[in-house]
Amino acid sequence: MQTQTKFLQLRKHLEKTIVGQTDLLDRMMIGLLTGGHVLLESLPGLAKTTAVNALATGIRANFQRIQFSPGLMPGDLTGCDIYSSETGSFHFVEGPIFNEIILADEINRAPPKVQAALLEAMQEHQVTVGGKTRPLADLFIVMATQNPLEQSGTYPLPEAQLDRFLLHVVLSYPTPDEELLILQRDREQETNHQETYTTSPLNPEHVLKARKEVLAVHLAPELEKYIIELVGATRQLERFTPEWKNYLQAGASPRASLALAKASSALAYIRGRDYVVPDDIIDIAPDVLRHRLVMGYAARAARVSPDAIIQKILSEVAIP
Question: What global pTM score does this model have?
Answer without folding.
Answer: 0.87
